[in-house]
Specification:
With 369 residues, this protein is an alpha+beta fold. The protein has two domains: 249 residues, Zn peptidases (Aminopeptidase, 3-Layer(aba) Sandwich), CATH 3.40.630.10; 111 residues, Alpha-Beta Plaits, CATH 3.30.70.360. It has nine helices and 17 strands.
């Protein structure tokens, strides 16, 4: 299996979240690739979510190692689905996020089968991660006993010389403001829902400061953050709005709880404004002295011939679902830039190195069986 060719093939599928035809074509391509290896490959379909591809070398639901990732990408111009290599960098939509590393998972599956490793190994690739990972959620509901001792998560792209050991908890909160309408010329006859929403917003901002290009990056980025994702209120210019909503995206560290957040918000609501938590998860915190993590780190450093640092990531990881089920999560990816942007690329050597590290790690684990 030629890793570069598989990556290019995967990128050529326009698997923008929701593009069912191209997603199905991509899943079928992976299924065909693995068929000669003898791996068990399932395309798991769901009534209310897109499919997931599940490949494994065993019928068990308890794995030694499971690789987790996704195949969907954010929208892009057609040209970005025509990957090209220049100066060691592979350009195209999904090169960094994260089709290159989906190809690594496929490669590892093929090698595990070829070597007949005595490991219970598999991978799960979802197809709607960019819009909330409903497909993975449904898959796990249908596999309530699925567990893994170790989860390899390559969806933290950016720097191969860093392993992520902490991810924040994404919590989405919806503000709802109710007022009373009146003509725009007589605001004293109304309770402006927009104004009430803005006042509440200001209250919240006093507790969760804003950061942007002007304020700059704080010295300590491992803090709770908030951005206002969507705001809606009013229909026409001359009627004072009686309804307004806003969606808030909180990113909480492991030091904060959703219950604490609710208590804080309860005291910040203006008249007519209420809130509800529409989504919550958990932070992922891996013990940096975990022997499995340290063994992986040592092996990776041997391959890279350079020291690897631990770092924290403000974003979330789908691996949290298996972290909750007791897995040690190792978050490590290749080097690149431009995730979700026009110039997205990955350094091809870093992808090859991740593939090498992953297989050597699996071989080491197999030796202990």
């Amino acid at each position: 299996m030629q890793l570069l060719e598989v990556i290019k093939d995967l990128i050529s599928f326009k698997t923008i979240t929701g593009n069912a035809e191209q997603i199905d074509a991509c899943l079928s391509y992976i299924e065909r690739l693995l068929k000669p290896t003898g791996a068990v490959v399932e395309i798991c379909r769901h009534e209310n979510a897109s499919p997931v591809i599940f490949a494994k070398n065993t019928q068990t639901e308890h794995f030694d190692v499971l690789v987790l990732g996704h195949l969907d990408v954010v929208p892009a111009d057609d040209k970005m689905f025509e990957p090209y290599l220049k100066d060691g960098k592979l350009y195209g939509r999904g090169t960094l996020d994260m089709k290159s590393f989906a190809a690594v998972a496929v490669n590892s599956m093929s090698q595990v089968m070829k070597e007949n490793l005595p490991l219970k190994f598999g991978f799960v690739l979802s197809t709607d991660e960019e819009e909330g990972s409903k497909s993975l959620e449904e898959f796990l509901k249908n596999h309530p006993n699925l567990k893994a001792d170790i989860v390899l998560d390559n969806d933290v792209g950016g720097d191969i010389y860093k392993i992520v050991t902490r991810c924040k908890n994404p919590v989405y909160v919806k503000l709802k403001a109710k007022g009373s309408a009146a003509h725009g010329s007589t605001p004293w006859e109304a309770l402006d829902a927009n104004e009430q929403l803005f006042k509440t917003w200001q209250n919240i901002r006093k507790m969760y400061p804003a950061f942007d290009l002007k304020t700059g990056k704080p010295k300590d980025v491992w803090i709770d953050t908030l951005h206002f994702a969507t705001i809606e209120g009013g229909k026409v210019s001359n009627i004072i709005s009686d309804e307004a909503t806003a969606l808030l995206d909180f990113r909480l560290t492991e030091k904060s709880s959703v219950q604490d957040l609710k208590q804080k918000l309860s005291g910040l609501m203006e008249e007519g404004v209420s809130f509800e938590v529409t989504y919550q998860s958990i932070p992922v915190v891996v013990d940096e002295q975990n022997p499995v993590l340290l063994a992986y780190k040592k092996l990776a450093e041997d391959v890279l011939e350079k020291t690897i640092e631990f770092e924290y990531m403000g974003g979330a990881t789908d691996a949290r679902s298996l972290y909750e089920r007791g897995a040690t999560v190792i978050m490590h990816s290749g080097t690149g830039k431009g995730m979700h942007a026009k110039g997205e690329y990955v350094e091809l050597k870093s992808v090859e190195q991740i593939a090498d590290i992953q297989m050597k790690f699996l071989l080491k684990l197999a030796e202990k069986k």
